[in-house]
Specification:
mainly beta; eleven-stranded mixed β-sheet; 1 helix
């Protein structure tokens, strides 16, 4: 199937056997089941009951971004590619185009909540070495789904490592809550690309408390990254290939991002630990992978409420060559 692809509601490309279906998730969508087996109506999914109505109807809270119109957030099947220009590819065939968000789709209503907040994270810049491209071309990290969280805790929590630039970010994401498009009172995994005008993600998969998560970001050509989020317990993974415009010259060793958290008891009971964090920098070409020792620095948000004793620290193991980031709350 080829031709122009009109993005409406949350535009989704779905693979069906050897054929392909282009579909918008509009009001005629049938009920969908969450990982716990509950039926969630499209209306409930849009309004975001778990975040206590903080995501306005028809909006989506995107990781590391504004709350934008649901109609300009693109979901593609695992393994699909979206080029920097917006072409959507499945099995190396262009099957459509993602026009992205128009300016009016990124504007918030007057009464809407503020943007999401990074409450704790570690971060490192690329190392300006002679003979290198000064960009990161690979990242990996392992972390565990928190064991304890209030069963009906509202709000949205995102945990992820990432590569970013001034205007873009690629990230394997663990999510709690409903972001206005998917999720609920359970954990889910998704691979995301974000920019101000073209938020895109792969198909969500489920995760359970205690599951070991592996995230990896690898450059596959001069301006494309493969983002893989894998549940090592179930063997399931969700993968997104996405083109970038800017140089990815910042690496995050671990991030806690939140929206609509009103009480410290809404956080998990134990710190989140990102282990086996490694990052590679491109050499003379994008396909040359040089492992580096990242100078990860911890940051916390001391402004937004509630303040829950946030901390962010990093250690480097000279024996393994990997770093560990611990985020406390």
């Amino acid at each position: 199937m080829r031709g122009e692809y009109s993005v409406r509601s949350m535009a989704m490309v779905t693979a069906l056997g050897s054929g392909l279906l282009l579909a918008g998730c509009g009001s005629d969508q049938s009920d969908v089941a969450d990982p716990a087996g509950r039926s969630v109506s499209p209306a409930a999914a849009i309004t975001g009951i778990p975040v206590n109505g903080q995501v306005p109807p028809g909006k989506v809270m995107t990781p590391n971004g504004a709350i934008v119109d649901r109609s300009c957030v693109l979901e593609v099947p695992s393994g699909a590619e979206v080029t920097a220009g917006g072409d959507i590819k499945v099995d190396n065939r262009v099957i459509g185009h993602h026009p992205g968000c128009a300016p009016q789709q990124t504007r918030m209503p007057v009464a809407a909540p503020s943007l999401t907040h990074w409450m704790a994270y570690t971060e490192a810049n690329e190392q300006n070495k002679p003979g290198t491209l000064n960009i990161f071309n690979r990242l990996q990290a392992d972390w565990t789904v928190p064991l304890a969280i209030q069963p009906n805790s509202g709000g949205v929590l995102y945990f992820f490592p990432s590569l970013s630039s001034f205007s873009e970010i690629v990230q394997p994401v663990l999510q709690w809550g409903n972001n206005g498009e998917y999720g609920g009172y359970y954990w889910s995994l998704v691979s995301w690309y974000w920019s101000g005008s073209a938020p895109t993600h792969s198909t969500p998969i489920s995760a359970s408390p205690g599951d070991w998560i592996h995230g990896e970001i690898v450059m596959t050509d001069a301006n494309t990254y493969r983002i893989t989020t894998k549940n090592m317990q179930t063997g399931q993974s969700t993968v997104l290939y996405h083109g970038v415009v800017d140089e990815m010259d910042v690496a995050e060793g671990g991030v806690l991002e939140v929206l609509a958290i009103s009480n410290c008891t809404q956080y998990p009971s134990s710190p989140e630990v990102f282990k086996n964090f490694g990052v590679w920098q491109a050499g003379a070409t994008w396909s040359t992978f040089i492992p580096i020792v990242p100078a990860l620095v911890g940051y916390t948000d001391g402004t937004h409420q509630p303040q829950c004793g946030f901390s962010a620290s990093s250690t480097y193991d000279t024996r393994t060559g990997f770093s560990t980031t611990t985020l406390g709350y």
